[in-house]
Amino acid sequence: MVLTAESMLEATELACMRGDRILFTDVGFRLAPGEFLHVRGPNGSGKSSLLRMLSGLLLPEAGTVTWQGRNIKNNEEYHRALIYLGHLNGIKEELSAMENLKITCGLAGFDVEEKDALDAFERIGLFGREHLPTKVLSQGQRRRVMLSRLLVAQTPLWILDEPIVALDTDAIGLMRSLFELHLENGGMLIMTTHQELELSAGIYKEIRLTS
After folding, report:
1. Which residue among 46, 95, 169, 174 is the one 20 to 30 A from 69 at the CA level?
2. Given the DSSP bridges, would you call strands 62-67 and 21-31 parallel, antiparallel or unpaired?
3. Exposure class string for 65-97: b at 16+ Cβ within 10 A, else e
4. Are strands 188-192 and 157-161 parallel, antiparallel or unpaired?
5. Using CA atoms, how far apart are residues 23 and 3, in angstroms rounded to an integer?
6. How high is the pLDDT of residue 1?
């Protein structure tokens, strides 16, 4: 997908409730190509809920989310433009890393060639394990299976919930380089992380939620 200056994500006066408790209100921002939005806040402040709203998986109690001026609800163009990775691995443990990658990419609307998948697994440190059932992999390796989608993605907007948790130093370095390259190419990144991750590319923005 080709990004233009009009490729803009905008949230306006978002509110979220969990049961009878208000997690946040009046949250808003605008995100353009080459910009990184860091969502911060303590546990329970609604960070994951906000990311799910921005991905169209959770309806806000109030407010709107638009992509290029159109509401993201039932907006197929928007859903083709994003990758959302939650804080859970979201993989099927009985399937191999290769099968998980091909299925998740297919559900996102694009196919991945086996050569590209193998290249991605080699880069992310899973080479030789791509055909093992993911249930025999370590927690960090399962996380890498999920993150391998980013190595073959062709989507401009990445929404990532704690993407570098359970990764070792080398894998974190790889993901940092990948995030920077995505931003340099005009991609957009929204992320939560409890770990410090300074990026040398893109325009940094921040939202801080309170409990």
Report:
1. 46
2. unpaired
3. bbbeeeebeebeebbebbbbbbeebebeeebbb
4. parallel
5. 33
6. 43
